[in-house]
Design a protein that fits this description.
The chain is α/β, with parallel strands linked by helices and about 270 residues long. It contains seven helices and 16 strands. It has one domain: Metallo-dependent phosphatases (Purple Acid Phosphatase, chain A, domain 2, 4-Layer Sandwich).
């Protein structure tokens, strides 16, 4: 009996830590958008994890989403295990699927300057657009989209106001910021926010949510999912990999897909 219970626990743990899930969200915006909506896939907190040879399992799920944009919200590598291959192999494939944008996480900032520059250079060489305290405006199927990216060291200072105040208000504004706890600050500048960092609370309790998250402590307010502040909506990914704490419970690795559409009006 004990042996069977141990085997079941091992199987459950392997499933929880390796079986990908895709969470789909839909939101409405009055900003100009493609007729069938803008489709964004978010990856976060890879932490050097492999999902099969060449990231095959992850890429298969991602391609099935047919994204217009791909956003990576930090911690592509782990500061304790600085192997860049999982991030570089993934990045090369992502940029062949859709324009891919990236912001740093706290683990990137823990790297030495030499290692951090090597990571950033490697991502850029593979076509990933680094949004480190800068913005980018692009046209997606005839509609203008503005992306804003914050370096993880500048989440709550005046950097956001400096780079976002003069942006056009008529296009939809999408902000990438690794850590979600400053949402009230982000909300004044963005229609949509993508964050990670929390790992979904690592252990998710039924009917309660995440148990603990960095920088928020026990039972964090911002653990995973969709949050609203005024006219701004934030989506927090539970992430893909693990860091110091190596186990997920009721909290499988997650890809997030958000479809942003204009409201349906009755004629």
């Amino acid at each position: 009996m004990l042996g069977a219970a141990v085997v079941l626990c091992i199987v459950f743990s392997l499933w929880q830590n390796n079986a990908l899930t895709v969470t789909n969200y839909r939101m409405e915006s009055n900003k100009p958008l493609p007729q069938d909506g803008l489709r964004i896939v978010q990856l976060s907190d890879l932490h050097n994890k492999w999902f099969g040879n060449g990231q095959k399992r992850l890429l298969t799920e991602l391609r099935a989403q047919s994204p217009d944009l791909i956003v990576c919200t930090g911690d592509m590598v782990d500061s304790r295990r600085t192997e860049f291959a999982p991030a570089f192999v993934l990045a090369e494939a992502l940029t062949e699927i859709a324009p891919t944008y990236y912001v740093s996480g706290n683990h990137e900032l823990r790297l030495s300057n030499e290692m951090r520059n090597a990571l950033y250079d490697g991502l850029s060489a593979r076509g990933v657009i680094l949004l480190l305290n800068r913005t980018d405006t692009l046209t997606v199927r005839g509609c203008t989209v503005t992306l804003i990216g914050l370096d993880d060291r500048n989440l709550e200072d005046d950097t956001l106001s400096q780079i976002a105040d003069s942006l056009p208000t008529e296009s939809i504004r999408i902000l990438l910021a690794h850590e979600p706890q400053a949402f009230s600050h982000y909300a004044a500048y963005a229609d949509v926010v993508f964050s990670g960092h929390t790992h979904g609370g690592q252990i998710r309790l039924p009917f309660v949510g995440g148990l603990a998250a960095p920088d928020q402590g026990l039972f964090p307010k911002y653990d995973a999912g969709e949050f609203q502040e005024g006219e701004s909506t934030m989506f927090i990914s539970r992430g893909l990999g693990n860091s110091l704490f190596p186990i997920r419970v009721f909290n499988r690795p997650e890809l997030v897909t958000v479809t942003i559409q204009n409201p349906i009006t009755e004629e």
